[in-house]
Protein 1
Amino acid sequence: MKIRGAVLDRIGAPPRYAESKPLTIVDLELEPPGDGELLVRIEAAGLCHSDLSVVNGSRVRPVPMLLGHEAAGIVERVGAGVDDVAVGQRIVMTFLPRCGECSACATDGLAPCIPGSAANGEGVLLAGGTRLSIDGGPVLHHLGVSAFATHAVVDRRSVVAVDDDVPPVVASLLGCAVLTGGGAVLNAGQPRPGDTVAVVGMGGVGMAALLTALAHDDVEVIAVDQLPDKLARATELGAHAAVTPEQSGGLKARIVIEAAGHPAALETAIALTAPGGRTVTVGLPHPDARITLSPLGFVAEGRSLIGSYLGSAVPARDIPRFVAMWRAGRLPVESLVSATIGLDQINEGMDQLADGHAVRQIIDFD
């Protein structure tokens, strides 16, 4: 079938992206779903720094690639062997499929799926190969999703079904921002009553971590960011304190979530971590990035540094947890949306991400 989507065919185009236009809106051919796969009509897709990192070359991926990894949609067709998802159901797409059989999948979310990670690196679906093409030439998949398009074919193991009462915008954000930021709080941080939780980096993932921490009773939450508008927004959402890194001296938290993907942010997060505390890093810096730290503090103060990919989450377990929190009014996921745009505005949206102004921009396909 014919679809329309945003394809990246060159990496490292210069900003401003509104002028250099690294993403081109084109017509593509999409093959029908194979065994264990689904055809999904995209309803809403979020713009994330993980998309920008492919555009600017911080995360090198093969091209041409149809980008987008945070989305929700309606199932329009199911492949052979799929009997637990029906046509017409709304699904949340997640950017790391889990095979359920490898040694990493046995870690309860601690380690990313080995075959899923390999498929993501190659730009193919979990079963292998691509389902996208232009004029007979293959176009690669972004993290098994490729959601910046009207439709997608995805592996069943890349989605979680949700009920109709979960709006498309909320459902889309559950698959990356909330799963990554909120999952880091629930699964790696594990706050207890009386804890202080600090979040460094108030983008979409950081704001989701902030909201998830605030959903806990008797937990003090500190927001840390360079930008005054981000700190103001964090305060509006309920942060008990909102400071710049320069103002954070003397503050300590038992759990610190680093969500900026920058070495200076991780150094700030480590400095904020109290004795006996946990620094949880979810940001994805450039592969060449390095930090300077003294290991003595980790030993002498009993602190730990934890890497958390996809929020150390098992999507089938954790997305229903977040849906329940949203239904109960404890997790206002809608508040993460900073703008709604059309697919043809995607390059301008990347500029907003690069400038640091956006929390979550949503492409509304309906």
Protein 2
Amino acid sequence: MIGDKIANARKEINMSQAQLARLLFISPQAVGKWERGESIPDLITFNRLAEILQVDLNYFSENFSSGNDNTVSKMSFDDASETSVKSETDILDTKERPLLTNFNGNNLTGSDFAGITAHNRKFNGTALRGSDFAGADMTGSTFSSSDIRDANFNEANLTDCMLSTVDLTNACFLKTILQRTEFNKSVLIGARFTDTNFVNAKLIMLDLRQTSFENCTFSGVDFEYSDLRGLRLDGLSFTDVKFQKAALNDTSFHGAILRNVSFRPTYALTNKYYRAIKTIQFSGAQMDKLTYAALKGMEADLSGVTII
């Protein structure tokens, strides 16, 4: 029954199994198993499904009925001309009032948002692959469960933005403003951050092993439960940064500047964590006395390090 409901809601918005799988970061085969009744999604995935398919969570329950037992609001995933649904009177009460705040579930592949001012917009379950946000002011906007591969965020303002469970493969961030920006459980394979300052940002549960950081600074940044194994952070600047429960095996900080940087896990140190710390490369780095002392206490290799 649940499989039928997923299939019906998916077809109502003309979305393929592959498109749905991509937005959920799972395989199309997993979607096929749901629809054939061979397995069911977990609770968190149900929430994301409801968001992407634009249905109420009750839609998946046995006794729910909504007229024709399909989606609550119908929208074509492949029709970019129907820009969005104005639910909850989604017009900003400001002097500009030009745009809807809600772009959820739309196909906006390759859209041109360059240079716009659009605060507090919602892009949830939205196809944005190859879209151009260069120079745009997207302060306070939310991107969730969306396909944003190959997007251009060069010189964009992403202050207070949330990017959660999105696919940012090969996206580019040149001189992007990332103040209090949060990247959460997202794909950043091939993403490039260049001449970018991270200020009080959060990078949570990310695989950063194939992400590029060039001439970037990190101030007040938290790396939580993220995978940085083998990542080269050479020559970068870190101030008031925390690496909490992060995988740091063979991470390179050659020539980097570290001030008040914490490499301690949230809980007690383990032998495994000690071994990981010993593989971090700090040669040529500069660090303050407290950071140096903390790393020394964890038996890090600090040969070639300069205390500042």
Protein 3
Amino acid sequence: MRLRPLTFERPKPMIPLLNKPSIVHLVEHLARQGIEEIVVTLGYKGVGIKSTLGDGRAYGVHIEYVHDKKKLGTAGSVKNAEEHFQDKPFLVVGGDHVIDLNLREMYRFHRLGKTPVTIGLIPIEDPREYGIVDIDVNNKIHRFHEKPKRGEIFSNIASTGIYVCDPSILDMIPEDEAYDFAKNLFPRILEENKRINGFLVRGKWTDIGNPTAYREAVRWMLANMKSTTIIGSFNVRGARVIGPFEVQQNVSINENSALVGPTVIGRDTSIGGGVLVGPYTTIGSGCVIEEGSRIFSADIFNNVHIGKNVSVSGAIIDNDTHVGDDCILETDTVIGPRCRIEKGSTICSGARIWPELTIKRGERVRGKCVNDAYETATGGS
């Protein structure tokens, strides 16, 4: 819920990341790691995930699906898929994870350690939204604390939510019941004096659980772009372009505009004259950006219309939203789908605008602007 208003119409794994659902990036990474058999557990609005991934052949893997008829928690959801696990260790990865980690190395480490479960660990600058562990030089975890408050942060080594598990742990998870790895299973294993190992992963990881984490994931994925890719026609009419960037079919940039990578632009998007698109920006398909606007490290989804002389800095704008002339969208603003931001409005830093709302001409919006037709809560995961 911390990603609302982006998750009213899609689950977190379906949020666009460089113009394709984040779960597609995850499956592609698993395939590159040589992981060929994948089981996806589906909950909230999971039909979209299944229709996107299909049977996995497009990504060089085989995917099976299990539907959770009610909320089962992280461990309960795995238990619900028990019939698909053979008598060997298996890897658990959150569907909303964005990773660049050597998972095969972690799997081999677990096989040598002979413990019921190995937890992937990573140092975190602010671990208060994660489970932290106390680990010794022999990789043994001595205690685990979920989402610590100030004064409880005995470590900044946080769980990634990536686990390698022996099938024996399935016997410890109740059937058809909400049960969580971090809150329930791991404390029980430690209480029974069984060993849990930790594996310090190397590389990039985030769970895009909030807008800041999402934007960080976009930034490091764009930073990994090494070359320019142009698919189909790309009309540059006296504009200045500096790579790297990825441009899809039928994109046009008019005179006296500048595109500075790393940047990704979807198909059928039109950028007017005198527009500056700065680094670490993603623009979806079917978008229009009119004359004189400035777009800096923003994430613009599909069919978004940006008017003349608009400033968008570090904002996220969902599908089919219209931003009028002379507006300012400050950093860390999130605009839901099908909104209308009228001329001269300012969306202040940290604002959240629910779907299908109209912001009146010249209005300054701070905080949360809700639509009563949708839920209003933003807490939770």
